[in-house]
Specification:
The complex is a heterodimer of chains A (111) and B (118). Chain A is an all-beta fold and 111 residues long. Chain A is built from no helices and 9 strands. In chain A, strands 1, 3, 4, 7, 8 and 9 form a 6-stranded mixed β-sheet that branches. In chain B, strands 2, 4, 5, 6, 9, 10 and 11 form a 7-stranded mixed β-sheet that branches. In chain B, strands 1-3-8-7 form a 4-stranded antiparallel β-sheet, with no helix packed on it. The chains are: A mainly beta (111), B mainly beta (118).
């Protein structure tokens, strides 16, 4: 079971919007609405920002939104802020016996 | 407030066994999967496996032959054992909570760094 594919890095200026893609397969992203996204500041603890493809946990800014089309999930961050600079990982349930597969991770730089 | 407090040996020699424990508080122990995840230096997150409150386990096939995850429900603790470690097992190890049927990690331990070196 390979990891889900994400761009290694994305960047944007404060106030802009960026989108991070997460490419999976029909065994994971394409078959289940069980995609989650995590924000991970180095040295800290990953924090879930999206679950169930589009749901935001209580307390997470509405600037974060998720979507899915076929085998690809996406995370959009609008109104970029300096504190959004972090690593972002997607994650999906998989029908393969690995059960859970993470994305390769994307480093977001706020210029 | 949900808390996951984890501990275990941080420095191991090749072929030794990594042992970590995670204690859960502020939450029911039922209705969740209790999960271990790791991040090797410079690499991404990797799901290791999970256990339910009644001891049902699932493991990442790439680690299955070396991993055991166990639970002590009365203490609200679960543990990870990884045998025959090599340098490739050097990583930050996290414990996490996963609600049944939702498959996302909604609470995490602070992470434990395990380093394998001769």
């Amino acid at each position: 079971q390979s990891a889900l594919t994400q761009p290694a890095s994305v960047s944007g200026s404060p106030g802009q919007s960026i989108t991070i893609s997460c490419n999976g397969t029909s065994s994971d992203v394409g078959s289940y609405d069980l995609v989650s996204w995590y924000q991970y500041h180095p040295g800290k603890v990953p924090k879930v920002i999206i679950y169930g493809v589009t749901e935001r946990p209580s307390g997470v800014s509405s600037r974060f939104s998720g979507s899915k089309s076929a085998d690809t999930a996406s995370l959009t961050i609008s109104g970029l802020q300096a504190e959004d600079e972090a690593d972002y990982y997607c994650c999906s349930y998989s029908k393969e016996d690995v059960f859970v597969v993470f994305g390769t991770g994307t480093k977001l730089t706020v210029l | 407030q949900v808390q996951l407090q984890q501990w275990g040996a941080g420095l191991l020699k090749p072929s030794e066994t990594l042992s970590l424990t995670c204690a859960v508080s502020g939450t029911s122990f039922n209705n969740y999967f209790w999960t271990w995840i790791r991040q090797p230096p410079g690499k991404g997150l990797e799901w290791i496996g999970r256990v339910s409150h009644d001891g049902v386990t699932d493991y990442n096939p790439s680690l299955k032959s070396r991993v055991t995850i166990s639970v002590v429900t009365s203490k609200k603790q679960f543990s990870l054992m990884l045998t025959s470690v090599t340098a490739a097992d050097t990583a930050v190890y996290f414990c996490a909570r996963v609600p049944f049927n939702l498959y996302y990690m909604d609470a995490w331990g602070k992470g434990t760094t395990a380093t394998v070196s001769s």
